[in-house]
Every structure is written in structure tokens, then in C-alpha cells.
Specification:
Helix content is 62%, strand content 0%. With 128 residues, it is mostly helical. The longest helix is centred in the last third of the chain and has 29 residues, at 92-120. It is elongated and about 75 Å long. The N and C termini lie far apart (65 Å). Residues 4-9 and 32-36 have low confidence and may be disordered.
Length: 128
């Protein structure tokens, strides 16, 4: 049994200096990380789709809120009955109004995130 066969299971070759082998490994690992990174254009596209789906959901919840006369189910704004989650007063109307507000807030925050993401990657994204 040779020294190289003893250490073959850990991936070391005793014929080369260990420092060179470790440097080679870090190059391979960094290439793997770079290759697996999602391109900025794909990140932006996915975020836009998520915002579009959430906006469609917002319209559906808004329609249900209007049909159920739940538009004023939460008497104060931005809270609902003075809390973030009105558990004690929760019924279908309060839930619809509260969820509509929650979805709208998430869409707003995500849209601000989209602006930040596109600004961050402005050099690699296609120009309009």
C-alpha cells in the first residue's frame, strides 16, 4: 500500500505540495459557487412574477372585501382595533380587511425591494 493510496479517500496526492492542492480545491469551489449563482436578470424576473401573483391575489381579496361589505371592518389605520393582529375581534369581515391590508403592505415592501435589486444590478441588466 503506497502513501498516495492511503490518502486517496481524502483527495490528497502526496506527489504534489499540499498548499498547491488546497489552492486548486479553493479555485474549484469558487468556480462552483460562481456557476451556481442565479443571474440578476432571473432574480428580477422571478421577483416581478411574485409581485404580479400577489397583486392578482390582492385584487381577488379586494373584490371579496367589497362584496362582503368589509371595507370598514377595521375602524383604524394602519392597525386594526389597535393591534397588528386583531385576534379578539376576528370574524370573516375583519379577516378579509386585515388580509387585504397585509397583502398590500407586502406588495409595497417587495416593490421597494425590486427597485433596490434593479438599482444594485443596474450595470448588468439590459438597458431600456
Amino acid at each position: 500500500m503506497t502513501n498516495s493510496s492511503v490518502h486517496s479517500d481524502v483527495g490528497l496526492n502526496l506527489d504534489l505540495p499540499i498548499k498547491q492542492q488546497l489552492d486548486d480545491r479553493s479555485d474549484i469551489e469558487s468556480n462552483i459557487i460562481i456557476e451556481s449563482k442565479t443571474p440578476p436578470q432571473t432574480q428580477v424576473r422571478r421577483l416581478i412574477w411574485k409581485i404580479a401573483i400577489a397583486t392578482f391575489l390582492l385584487m381577488a381579496i379586494g373584490s371579496a372585501t367589497r362584496v362582503m361589505n368589509a371595507g370598514l371592518a377595521c375602524p383604524d389605520w394602519p392597525l386594526c382595533y389597535g393591534t397588528l393582529f386583531p385576534g379578539q375581534q376576528m370574524n370573516l369581515q375583519v379577516f378579509l380587511e386585515w388580509f387585504h391590508r397585509l397583502d398590500a403592505a407586502l406588495i409595497g415592501v417587495t416593490t421597494i425591494g425590486l427597485v433596490g435589486l434593479t438599482w444594485w444590478h443596474r450595470r448588468v441588466l439590459p438597458a431600456w
